[in-house]
Amino acid sequence: MSTAARRSPTPPGRPLPRRILPRLDRREVVAVFAGGAVGTLLRAALSQAFPHSPTSWPWPTFVVNVIAAVLLGYFVTRLQERLPISSYRRPLLGTGLCGGLSTFSTMQVEILEMIDAGAYALALGYAAASVGAGYLAVHFATAAVRRVRLTR
Fold first, then answer.
1. Do 55 and 114 form a contact (C-beta atoms < 8 A)?
2. Residue 72 sits in which domain range?
3. Count of the separate structural domains present in the chain
4. Residue 84, C-beta contacts closer than 8 angstroms, at least 6 positions apart
5. What single string gives the DSSP state of each residue in 119-150?
6. Is there a domain that residue 108 lies in?
7. How confident is the model over 86-120, as pLDDT tens digits?
């Protein structure tokens, strides 16, 4: 009997079980965690420094989300199209930093607080402006990266 046959957890003739989830790269997980920690701490510091009422525009969250969208557009485009492939830059900067810095959940809570306070127009305007500004920020950052000429 061969060594491979002795090690096989399934009987001969039966297919090996398929792996459903991909293998985790611990260094990639650490990169996401580190970037997320930095982004989350920056966002939390800004929210604490600039509190607002439910009937006023939540500038800290709005500005942070737009900045995160600009950074995401820049990082993703630059990392995919301009720099050598790296296993850890995108998880660190895109998923981690931008994911921790942006805060869709806080935006939702703020919109619900506006609605509870009766500021319906403010809630609608904030939701539309946040989504629209986020898309424009990603678009312009991506376009800016693509306009830079490569010198090779």
1. yes
2. 25-147
3. 1
4. none
5. -HHHHHHHHHHHHHHHHHHHHHHHHHHHHSPP
6. yes
7. 778 888 888 888 888 888 888 999 999 999 999 99
